[in-house]
Known about the structure:
B: mainly alpha; 18 helices
Amino acid sequence: MNQENTSKLDVPVMADIFARGEKPEYLYWVGCAGAFDDRYRKVARAFTGIMNYLKVNYAVLGSEESCTGDPARRAGNEMLFQMQALSNIETFTRYEVKKILTTCPHCYNIFKNEYPDLGGRYEVIHYTNFLKEMISSGSITFKDDTYRNAMITYHDPCYLGRANGEYEPARRIIDALSGGRVEMERNRSFALCCGAGGAQMFKEAEPGDKEIFIERTEEALKTGAGVVATSCPFCMVMMTDGLKYKNKEEEIFNLDIAELVFRAMGL
Amino acid sequence: MIKQIVFIACLALTLVVFIYSAWRLYRFYKLTRPYRFGRLAKRLVVMTEVAFFQTKIFRRPVIGFLHALVFWGFCVIAIGSIEMVIDGVFGYDRIFSAWGWVYDMITASGDVFALLVLLAIVVFLFRRLFLNIKRFHGVEMKKKSHQDANVALSLILLLMISLLGMNVFYLTSCMHSGIAPEGTYPVSTHLATIMGGGEEDHLLMEVFWWMHILLIFLFANILPYSKHFHVFMSIPNVFFSRLEPLGKLPLMEDVLKEVKMMMNPETAFSAAPEGEQAPARFGVKDVEDVNRKNYLDALACTECGRCTSVCPANLTGKKLSPRKIFMDLRARMKEKGPGLLKQGKEYQDGKSLLGDYISCEELWACTTCNACAQECPVNINHPTLIIEMRRNMVMEDACAPSGIKSIFANIENNGAPWQFSPADRMKWAE
């Protein structure tokens, strides 16, 4: 269900493109997880695979990309956040960036809602919305039937859902490629956090009687779905860990929306 | 005439006490930091939806509907109460009855809602007293909270009983003396028909009339000292809601000045310009650091616990409870406010909101998922205040878990929360 695509990808880097005197339409913001997290790298690869297939005019920043400042800000370090943001805005200005595509909802939220306060105004697009548009315009068609008989449940990331009110694009995508979508008891604006937001990802949880990701995984398992779909790198870490903790990682797969689309396109 | 004098005396006493209580809270409110708000039209829309149409309380449909009935009942019945006050002061008898069919509408809906509110309150009291509802409990829910709730509910119950009693005996006394009653009373008519008219019914109506209005006066003056101050504060609190997306945190402008100086090579090593001072405090440590909306939130909170019941940290046994944050703010203001008013902003009592009331452990458990803010029926915003306190912990005391300290160091050194070199940022594509 989750075969590797291991060949080297052709990913345009902003500095090279700009040196040739070209200006890409989109900046694809890979984010720290796309760059460094082993599991989530596959998501970045799937999404670039789709973009390359669609011949989207985009580029990435590569080594010029730096943290948006989200975990620092949510952990209370406003100074570090502002330094990161101002220096990223400088980079964006240098490359005349107007549209930013992100896979991470945290990066999406901070560019869309918080960079404008520091003078950085962009059209920010989360990839679930981008892919949904491509499906409804007919640019993306599904040739592969891998998920035609699969039941998929979708875990809402807080920073896409409650933070920005976007609940439907990912669901429309799942509906278009799967045998059926089954909702967890707490979904959309009622969805339970995976436990990673607000910089929790990078620290030990406070003492309690349960880990949040286990609570959420149990809810996902209750649906009986064969795939738990996520659209956030940190939700993916949490849900994948949860499935492992429950010894379900052999039967139930945690896949990103981009991976589902990539596979269903037959790429 | 004597009735008028007694009534005016009661009303004057009520107003004096109420104005004193409100003025006291207003002075506390003025101790907090200014809160900018604009977009009046948008605010009116939000207020109409969330306050008058009760949209957020319907997220729990059954119990939410009962609450909406009580709220709408209050709005309708308030018109009748205004009439009672005018009648009482000037010695009129049902002054609004001159309005004809409008008066029929007002009295009819007031009469029907009196019964509906009464039934809803019976359900609420039953839930509180006999069912073990998890969200009514928690470390922050002390005896006072439960007493407040039971007193308020009992008073509302008595208010509705007295209103219905007033209506029923008005009808029976009219029957007895053969006068056509003013207004329409769909519920009380049935009760009156069963009971029939009697000699003493006019007197009984007077008794219920006084009982109803005096209970209103008493209720209004208990509210500022209980969690049910909610009755007055929830509509203004919704009006002053944060209108930004839930995911957006407010910018610290004081910090921006410093950061810009640091990042500009020309000013980085020079002294700060004359008259520019570093901010006295980063984030929120105590009550004088919160903004006006935070304090309004604390006054509007009726401790329903919907926030805490959806908090992922609280659900999994961590100490964080979003409700507690605002109850602590309110309690701390009550403790420190009088001193601040007497001795000015410099007043210290050796305690603070952050530390003595709210612990680091509670604040670090927040995932900023915004479930609490999404759920709050009166648009209290918990995560922004939690982050303001984290700002204080991090930027003043550097009280942060080790994992958090290392992400700060990694972001500063290599531009990622993990310790990977920026040079490796393209490895994923290989």
